Amino acid sequence: MNKSIIAYNVPELEKRNVLSEASNLFKSNVLNEEQWGKIQVEFETKLYTPTVTMRVLLFIVSLIGMSTIMGPIALILGDIGETGHQLLSFLLGISLLLFTEIKLIKKESHYKSGVTEAGIYAGLSFIAFALLGSKSHSLLVYPIVGFLLAAFAAIRYLNLTALVITIGFFGWLLFQVLSDIGGVAQALMPFIFIIAFGLIYWGSNKVRAKLTAEFLNDQFIILQTISLVLVYLAGNYFVVRELSIKMLGLTLSEHEDIPFAFVFYGLTALVPIAIIYWGIKHRSVLLIRVALVTIALSVITFKYYFSLGMPVLTITISGAILIIVALLLLNYLKQPRKGYTREKLLNNKWSSPDIMAVVASQTLGGNQSSGSVSEDINFGGGKFGGAGAGGNW
Amino acid sequence: MNNTNKELYQRNLINDEQFQLLEAIRTEKVVSVYYELRLMLYLGIMLFAGGVGYFAYQNIGYMGHLMAMTGIGVAIIVGFYFIRKFAKSYSNGEVTVTLVYFDYILILVSLLIIALFAYVQVYFDLVELLLNWTSFISAAIFLFMAYRYDNRALLAMAITAFTAAVGLSISPVNWAKGAWQLSSNLYTTSIVLGAALAIIGQVSQYKNVKKHFRFTYQNFGLLLYFIGCLSAMFKSNYELPYAFLTLVSAGILTWYTWMKKEFLFFIYANIAGYIAFTYLVFKAVDHMSGDYFVFVYYFPVTCITYLLLLFKKKSHFAHE
């Protein structure tokens, strides 16, 4: 791997990765204080990363500061017309990127400090505006420009948000190309998506096994998770049906099915099962997590089309099933079995009783103002609140 | 470079046993489903309790109330049996219970008690009588369970239920979305309650009674306080005094949280303070010339100055 592709100093990134891994091990009581102390000395890095909350603040302030900077400059220059604005925007974007890279990253050793993110986003947005302007282009132009800029940020600055956006633009590009070609290509779209993202998943698995760069772990987790979810969604009956109607102009009457409906019903049911089977067999947490999400989505999909008309009962029963399954598994895994354990091996970066408290209060009721009907106050809080679905605490 | 485990092992920073364990985890020879199972339990409880509560509400006027009530009652009793069996006695410190799903039973039972309470209330036509008290009673139940069995999630639910009882809704999500104003003129209530919660948090720590509850109290308290202040600033007839109140209290909190390195509350204070300050500048411009061109410069200049100030003290907030 050519190390100069990445704007950061790779040996420093590696040190920082060891430090953050070790810090988690220390917090999980795997390392003792003495070991942690030694590691801190041996792997001291000059990369500068503030605490999470501080990064948020720095990001917001820098973003406001950088994105409003065009105002004064435009004011000084006076009326320069549309092209002038585009040129100015381009120069400003380039200078913001150069400032971020040379001053912040190279000189001050900022690494994900919030300011760097703001610089990258603001810089790229200015460049995007410069390239696209306010005229309308062919629908293919937007995803191409977006994809290239986002991919640049994702690779050179290891930016995770940019990675997600890159994948999004890639999906859009693929969709646009296929629907522009039309005909067979359009009809085969779900399968082309499944194959494309399946290949991305498979390929990234291969690359990951070869690469020893552990500081890229988060990148791979995100890439693989999204690819897998997209493989599932491309075959999901609801998604295919709705997208065919809304985006590709398919007209269906009330009870009419999409062509080859049984294929998509099959995929909706079988893909999650396949994923969970592979996940359990190969003990891959990533696969298991994706499988749990897709199973939930499949249940909702089938419920949507074959509803029994008793949503409350469905909710209660599915809640009861979840509780029972979880308790049974907890009991079953009292002793580790087949490599699975119910015990916490290492702390999750995001788990904290304080975060859980906020999530619970926002999802489990108690947070509805009594201005309305008072008797349903206790269960209004979040029957459908999906906040818990995304993360762990 | 090697993988982290090998690197640490070769440099003699971890021992054999630790290396074996970490390699087993890295290569997924042993996998923990700790968080997955907990998430499942949590979702299950959320759906089940929500469903039971709503089911009870929906079925008023049909047969089988007593059975439904008995059912919920039995579930509560069974739950309490487990709670009593595994709970430790009350302590002012943090209490850890060995049973892995203890917290979840606790939350489920609390929610069921409240569902039963609502059911009884509707069934025996007590709604009108208890109209103003329902949320207070829910809050009291949550609060008791939170303190007795040491649970922060229940405490957060108690606080939100209590604020709901006085007509407010607090949500960090709204704050993050930029919904800073209250929908009705409850700003005084919000300010007083918010300040009270923040103080309770401080007292808890000072008196050493459930110190770890402080964050929950203050997180909600400060949100309520600043949302109240900002709403008052925009809506009341005393906009200037409220703007100054916001600015001054945000200033004090900024100083305090900076010293204590509590950066989440530092951010709350800074955002509220900045809004109040901008508002005052806006008013001043309005009063003097009405030349709003100033604001083209105002935002970049203030933000960049602020950043430079922060970076002068860079080491203060480096690394966790």
In brief:
Chain A is mostly helical and 393 residues long.
Fold topology:
The complex is a heterodimer of chains A (393) and B (320).
Chain A: H1 10-27, H2 33-42, H3 52-67, H4 70-77, H5 81-107, H6 115-132, H7 141-156, H8 160-181, H9 183-187, H10 189-210, H11 217-235, H12 237-246, H13 261-281, H14 285-305, H15 311-332, E1 340-341, H16 353-363
Helix pairs in contact in A: 1-2, 3-6, 5-6, 6-7, 7-8, 8-11, 10-11, 11-14, 13-14
Chain B: H1 4-10, H2 16-26, E1 31-32, H3 34-58, H4 65-86, H5 102-123, H6 127-130, H7 134-149, H8 152-165, H9 172-177, H10 187-207, H11 214-235, H12 239-260, H13 263-288, H14 294-312
The helix-and-strand class of chain B reads mainly alpha
Helical fraction of chain A = 55-70%
Major sheet characteristics of chain B? none
What percentage of residues of chain B falls in helices of 4 or more residues?
Answer: over 70%
Average per-residue pLDDT of chain B, rounded, comes to 81
Number of helices of chain A: 16
Order of helices and strands of chain B: HHEHHHHHHHHHHHH
Mean residue pLDDT of chain A: 80
> Termini separation of chain B (Å)?
25 Å
Over all CA atoms, what is the radius of gyration of chain B?
25 Å
Order of helices and strands of chain A, N to C? Answer: HHHHHHHHHHHHHHHEH
Class per helix and strand makeup of chain A: mainly alpha
Spans where pLDDT lies below 50 across 5 or more residues of chain A: 366-393
Count of individual domains of chain B: 2
Number of strands of chain A: 1
Indicate the proportion of strand residues of chain A.
Answer: under 5%
Shape of chain B: flat
Query: What is the terminal-to-terminal distance of chain A?
Result: 35 Å
**Count of alpha/pi helices of chain B:** 14
Gross geometry of chain A: globular
The largest β sheet of chain A comes out as: none
